[in-house]
Amino acid sequence: MVMKLLLDEHLSWRYIGTILVNDEHNVRSVNGESALKAMGDPELFELAIREARILITANHKDFDPIARNRNLAGASHSGMILVPGNVRNDNYGRLLGGIRVLLADILPSDWTNRVVWLPPKQ
Amino acid sequence: MAVATTSTTITVRIPRNVYDWLAQESQKCDQPIEEFASVRIEEAMRMAQLPGIFFVGDGVDRRARLIGGMDVWEMIMIYQAHGREGLLDAFDFPEFQIDRALTYYEAFPDEIDEILEENSQPVEYWMQKYPELNIQVHEW
Questions:
Q1: Which one of A80, A110, B71, B132 has the fewest CB atoms closer than 10 angstroms to its CB?
Q2: ipTM for this model
Q3: B10 Cβ under 8 Å from any chain A Cβ
Q4: Does the beta-carbon distance from B136 to A114 stay under 8 Å?
Q5: Contact between B132 and A38 using a beta-carbon 8 Å cutoff
Q6: What is the tens place of the pLDDT at every residue in B9-23?
Q7: What is the pLDDT of residues A29-77, one digit of tens each?
Q8: Closest alpha carbon within chain B to A98
Q9: Does one domain contain both B110 and B88?
């Protein structure tokens, strides 16, 4: 199933974005698109909502309150996957595995207002 | 960005339009005009000392950002995970952006560490802080 995704800037287009595209997902990436780099976090969140994309980010401290404020205002968002900020290149495979499972298990329509934390197994 | 803990009082004459802007903007973020002005002056000093850096955010939630790039703390976060070589391999950042972020971090480590520490808090912290989000956990 094709999912629409927006990768925040600290998620590698080369190692994550291109692989999700190969999985036939519709992916936009701040790291891969210079036009998105000038956008602030609120604008990026709005872009994800406008294009019905799930935002994947390691920026918990900024996007959590943005999503919360939107919820409190009675508006919805198109879903968010929170990943750790300390994932090294050699662990991208495992992280991608976690993202793939999520995208396969949850229907696009069920992502509205859903926030999923994706930590590595201890 | 925090205001320095030691300070000196000065009196300056500023154009009326500058005063009006300070009054309007400080009111928006519920900050005393003197404190607001002090923060903005310190930011201007840092921008002069560390070219390639500017500041974004509202009120007390101001942070250093790389011109044409991300917040400094975000660059440091992924630098700490990847190292320079890993960062250059996984991302298309110009190397000077990495150096600018590192220079800022060297000058103001406490400011960046404070943000990094909060961002790396476990899920329980965020669940408690933002219960409205109903955060779900899926391990990988």
A1: A110
A2: 0.90
A3: no
A4: yes
A5: no
A6: 889 999 999 999 999
A7: 998 898 898 888 999 999 999 999 999 999 999 999 999 999 999 999 9
A8: B140
A9: yes
